[in-house]
Design a protein that fits this description.
Elements: H1 5-24, E1 35-42, E2 48-55, H2 61-70, H3 72-83, E3 92-97, H4 100-112
Parallel strand pairs: 2-3
Antiparallel strand pairs: 1-2
Helix pairs in contact: 1-3
């Protein structure tokens, strides 16, 4: 089921503002880690935002996700300060680790490891 235009527009707004919150909070929660908001998916009633975080250079991603979840209310309050006049209700935030880059890296490695024979073998017609 595809998200409505309203959900997509709201998701882009949340993604932009959460990215700004993460960027300005580098010394706090994220402790100089390279964390970005990869994607936001909104529920149909716009009450829940599923936020996918990309953590490329973070060694322990589960620990970082736990740390983000500990500060979820603080992040939501900051988000409310940014979008409070544009929306009726600030959505609940649910954070997930975005693993698309890891899957792409794994696929690249698999493709690089393939042993494909070259065109050096003569064809039967020659």
């Amino acid at each position: 089921m595809s998200a409505s235009k309203r959900q997509q527009k709201f998701a882009r707004l949340i993604q932009k503002d959460l990215s700004h919150i993460i960027q300005k909070n580098k010394m706090g929660i994220f402790a100089n880690s390279f964390v970005t908001v990869a994607e936001v998916r909104m529920s149909p009633d716009l009450g829940v935002a599923k936020v996918y975080l990309s953590m490329l250079l973070v060694k322990d991603k589960d620990q970082m996700l736990e740390k983000v979840n500990l500060h979820k209310n603080e992040i939501r309050r900051d988000l409310g300060g940014m979008i409070g006049k544009q929306v009726r209700k600030i959505p609940e935030l649910i954070f997930f680790i975005d693993e698309i880059e890891e899957h792409a890296t794994r696929m690249d490695k698999l493709i690089d490891d393939l042993d494909i024979p070259g065109e050096d073998t003569p064809s039967p017609e020659s």
